[in-house]
Design a protein that fits this description.
Helix content is 33%, strand content 16%. It has nine helices and eight strands. The chain has helices at 11-22, 39-45, 54-60, 94-97, 101-104, 110-117, 132-135, 157-170, 199-208; strands at 3-7, 26-30, 49-51, 63-66, 85-88, 122-125, 149-154, 173-176. It has an eight-stranded mixed sheet with strand order 3-2-1-4-5-6-7-8, sandwiched between helices. The structure holds NADP nicotinamide-adenine-dinucleotide phosphate.
């Protein structure tokens, strides 16, 4: 039985946990305030769910989702995530996260920052451009005409296959943007960020994306 660990159990974390449970996974949830604050969510999710510290959730997960305000990415536990597929949903909002120079000057991407922090993990960017509420309402079975697609980016092909399989189970087609360095194509305010898109439409959006010029 595969366990999905969650570092962050807010709007996105809780929705992905619901999808995980619906698809037969076990989940271990964590947040910044401690497992006891997740009792209501664990009760809603049922016996396949439990709450833990971030370190325990990282250790327990076969796959681990990091879904926290980007400003806190450096507090994600490093050692228990070594060797694991880590899904990064995070986006950069300076008004929330403060300014991060390497993002302001476009010299890196949000997921490359997490990958630098987790050098032995296999980071895959996913679920960053869909509103939390839509995760449980927009999914459709594989093969459905006009099925919604979501972008992934990552440097490890096997890890990307794992995440693509998860996306398919959760009801979405996958569009591969390439390595983590290409993740800017689906950063905040790009064409594909937010609207419902099929795979074909999303590929067009990624190709047409314009990176803001370096200051
Ligand atoms: N909301 C959306 O529709 C959406 C869509 C796509 C991507 N995103 C991105 O995904 C990320 C999560 O968004 P969200 O809307 O789910 O945020 P959220 O509702 O504010 O939830 C954030 C979660 O992260 C936890 N957290 C914060 N710092 C932590 C730390 N150091 N260690 C462990 N857990 C920590 C919080 O726990 P506490 O409550 O205990 O502090 C909370 O459970 C953000 O980067 C966001 O930009 C959001």
């Amino acid at each position: 039985m595969t366990t999905i660990g969650f570092i962050g159990a807010g709007k996105i974390g809780s929705q992905l946990a619901r999808l995980s449970i619906q698809n037969g996974y076990h989940v271990v949830l964590s947040n910044s305030r401690g497992p006891e604050t997740l009792a209501a969510l664990v009760q809603e999710l049922g016996p396949q769910a439990r709450a833990a510290t971030a370190r325990e959730a990282a250790r327990a997960g076969d796959i681990v989702v990091v879904t926290v305000p980007l400003k806190n990415y450096r507090s994600v536990p490093v050692e228990p995530l070594a060797g694991k597929v880590v899904i990064d949903t995070n986006n950069y909002y300076p008004q929330r996260d403060g300014h991060i120079a390497a993002l302001d000057d476009e010299s890196t991407t949000t997921a490359e920052l997490l990958q630098e922090h987790l050098p032995l993990s296999k980071v895959v960017k996913a679920f960053n451009h869909i509103y939390a509420a839509e995760l449980t309402t927009h999914g459709q079975p594989a093969g459905t005409k006009h099925r919604r697609a979501l972008v992934i980016a990552g440097d490890d092909p096997e890890a990307k296959k794992t995440v693509e399989k998860l996306l398919d189970q959760f009801g979405f087609d996958t569009v591969d943007a390439g390595p983590l360095a290409e993740g800017w194509r689906i950063h905040r305010d790009t064409l594909g960020y937010g609207p419902r898109r099929t795979a074909e439409e999303l590929r067009r959006d990624l190709a047409a994306a314009q990176r803001p010029p370096r200051p």
